[in-house]
Task: structure prediction
Amino acid sequence: MIDIRQRYLRNPVEADLKSRMVFIGGPRQVGKTTFALGFLASPNIKQAAYLNWDDVQARSSLMKGELPANQTVIILDEIHKYARWRNLVKGFYDTRKGETAFLVTDSAKLDHYRRGVDSLHGRYHYYRLHPFSLRELNPNPSESDTALLLKFGGGPEPLFRGEEKFWRRWEKERMHRVIYDDIRHLERVKEISLLEVLAAELPARVGSPLSIKNIREILDVAHETVDRWVRVFERMYYCFRIPPLGASRIRAVKKEQKLYLWHWSTVSNSGARFENLVACQLLKYCHFLEDSEGYAMYLRFLRDTDKREVDFVVLKEGRPLFAVECKTGEKDISSALFYFMERIKIPTAYQVHTGARDFQKQGIRVLPFFTFCRELLMP
Result:
């Protein structure tokens, strides 16, 4: 029996299925299939069917245009592996609209690969399912929950097993599937083995501006090739980059982009790993509001030409909501927070850490990361 926990996207997805198809994207091994299977036992759904493209019988039926009858919801998994999946899904939706809802899941970015002659525009809503975060792990998280997430990451299997050997094997297998299953099926990359070298290089660069030039020299390939490969990893939900906030009242850097991983547990440096965890939590917050409510949300960082920096700024509809600085210990407030708060209209600033100290000074709140997530109701 699979232990199916209700994820943070459950309610908005169930509501959207009444009027649109719903696409669920996200990293490998983040729980997309398990999330979808939860609808099979939902008391609000009369009947639901699960069809995986990798299943020979299911694939044969789908190719013939045959779907299970009298189903309220039909779940289509790994459908992207069919080159003409857009037309196939569009046909199913148009002929069964009003009687059957469709939930489509996949690791690759379906919103990116949907592009083609036959657009699915207006027929679906897209959600990004993130790894488990503190409040999904525990509605009232504690310091020990933060330590658990930092050690094992947000993948449900290693997180709930809590075994280091299992995590090591899981992580190795996950990376192999990203490169040799997802990328090989969806991208034209000849030097596939070099992607393993690139993937091994990226964890050491988390939290810093990513230098394509430096990686190009290591891999001995063209600059354009490395840039394309990094974008491939972004499309596969292996990593993401955030650009700087080019505020007018500071001499902001404009071209640098900081790198983070969707699964942060492979980052060896403790400070960078904690910063990556916070980055993932903030990105999850932005994506949730964007996917479920339609707001334009952005995650940025602050850095000027004098190398003053604040790790993150969250923007809603182009306006800053709050800034966040990360510290692994209970340290003094970063002077950069005071500097930027004086020059940029940011309503609230936080300095989060892995300890227990909680206080406020000159409008800046210093608090444990688990308290930050609990009080801001982070998903």
Observations:
- The first strand starts at residue 21 and ends at 25.
- The first helix runs from residue 10 to 16.
